[in-house]
Task: structure prediction
Amino acid sequence: MGLRALLQRSVPRNVLLLGVVSLLTDFSSEMIYPLLPAFFTGLVGPAAAAVYIGLMDGLADSVSSLLKIVSGRWSDRAGRRKPLTLAGYGLSSLARPLLALAVAGWQVVALRFVDRIGKGLRTSPRDALITESVPADGRGLAFSFHRMMDHTGAVAGPLAAIAILALWLGDGLLWQHGGTADPAQMGALRWLFALALLPGLASVLTLGMGVNEPPPAARAVVRRADPDRLSGRFYLFLGAVTLFALGNSSDLFLVFYLQTRFSLGLGLVLVLWISLHLAKVLCSLPGGRLADRFGRRPTILAGWLLYAGIYLLLPRLADLSSAWGLLLLYGGYYGLTEGAERALVADLAPMAGRGRAFGLYHGAVGLAALPASLLFGVFWAQLGPQTAFAIGAGLALAAVALLLLWFGLPAARRPDRTV
Result:
């Protein structure tokens, strides 16, 4: 089957529109997110910025993850995915631009916290909605398409940010080297954050007017007929993913490392972030196709091994061009794992328990984000970035070993080479 036919089968209207929603949401988010380290330096100084970054991402993502568990169960019980998905996107789109008004580091952390509450409400119901919109053997490609659209927004947002900051600051202040945002840059950042409201509202309108629920009658029959018990194989996978997530700190640390290591200005920071997401875009569909064709587990294992290698090598590189190339290769880790992990969750969960399964998956990954990002920031401050990256690589290799135990377990209820 050709790529066009595969996409037509795996990307129906709901998946396409949910991809557009994610594109617009990430457009809004990524106008802001890669610039938060620089914004923190203007508020609290460069010495405290790493700790604030770890606290912000760790706390916000962990609380978000608790909501992902709850929202998945709610959507299973209600038999409807769209209301919680819409509420989550709406809350994030309204909270995010308020960063323009922040005057202290804790306020940035608090607003990011509210933004992630919205993510917690929407993620599990949305992923269940994607699962219910495509056939089983197209899930890897469907989820990878959705992630590709998400990453496309993460490219468009920083490009818009560069254009706006260039108009506001001029080339000198945009590209100058330095570790701390000056008053002129802080003022420009505030205006940029406020403008992020526009694509956020567009995403909410697209979701509200375009995305449909699966037929209620069919869903009701499936809920009565299908058990909701999750298997031991699902929980083993969940344990391996959680262990990996404990070493998977925020991507902001990668960019922050290059920013501080090579004294980069705001413009180059944004270019680095854009190039990372371009690599994610290019790797998403091939990674999803590999997961559908050769299996979820081998694809995930390859991605985790790639991640460990990059974390070991990055702090040992002495020139920007080599580090940049490794950052591009890091996009391959996302392509190999994002669609495959979600597809494997869907494969292992009965339909009546899919919302709960996605909630547990996203919840476990997100709850691990607090110690992962917070401890990475502490290790960075106390032991140096090279040690912090090495610890992350070690945990990734431990997760690989745990997932390899899968191959010694009895087969699942329904043998499926995609599992």
